[in-house]
Design a protein that fits this description.
The chain has 162 residues and is of the alpha+beta class. The protein has one domain (8-146): Thiol Ester Dehydrase, Chain A (Roll). It has 3 helices and 6 strands. Strands 1, 2, 3, 4, 5 and 6 form a 6-stranded antiparallel beta sheet that branches. Strand 5 and strand 6 form a beta hairpin.
């Protein structure tokens, strides 16, 4: 029987002292840093790097939503479980679970939309553009594999009003 698809485990770090706030736990901005680093590592996994960026373009984050679920303390080992909720020629829809100290329950989640952008069109301004190979095929293939993972019920919702 084939093995069920799993999220990627491409980013890990021990929480440094400077990431801790006056309440003694990870400050909210550093959750964002952790997720940004995880997104960067996902892009590296797909083949993104300096050569691709110079020749074909880059990725911009255009929307994100972070849910803070549990406190994280100094010295905790944090890691992400990341997967593509979807991909097309210009976008990557990514989900990350932030995990602490090998506990399988996430301490935070992030849903993020990345756009592929070519730097410097005719007017020198960045423009949304199609991904190039090998990233396009790798992203589409990974999104297809990850489509077999159940989508969390919080995906696709913004902040709920009172």
């Amino acid at each position: 029987m084939p093995k069920a698809p799993e999220p990627l485990q491409v980013w890990r770090r021990v929480v440094p002292t400077e990431w801790i706030d006056y309440n003694g736990h990870l400050t909210e901005g550093y959750y964002g840093v952790a997720f940004a680093d995880a997104s960067d590592e996902l892009l590296v996994y797909l083949g993104f790097g300096p050569d691709y960026r110079a020749e074909s373009g880059t990725f911009y984050t255009v929307e994100t939503r972070i849910r803070f679920l549990s406190e994280v303390h100094k010295g905790a080992e944090i890691a992400t479980a990341s997967y593509l909720l979807g991909a097309d020629s210009k976008r990557l829809h990514v989900h990350h679970d932030l995990l602490a100290d090998q506990d399988p329950s996430p301490v935070a989640t992030q849903e993020v939309m990345l756009l592929h952008v070519s730097q410097g069109g005719e007017d020198g301004q960045p423009r949304v553009s199609s991904m190039r190979e090998p990233i396009l095929t790798r992203a589409l293939d990974l999104a297809e594999v990850h489509s077999l993972i159940p989508v969390p019920d919080h995906v696709g919702y913004g902040v709920r009003s009172l």
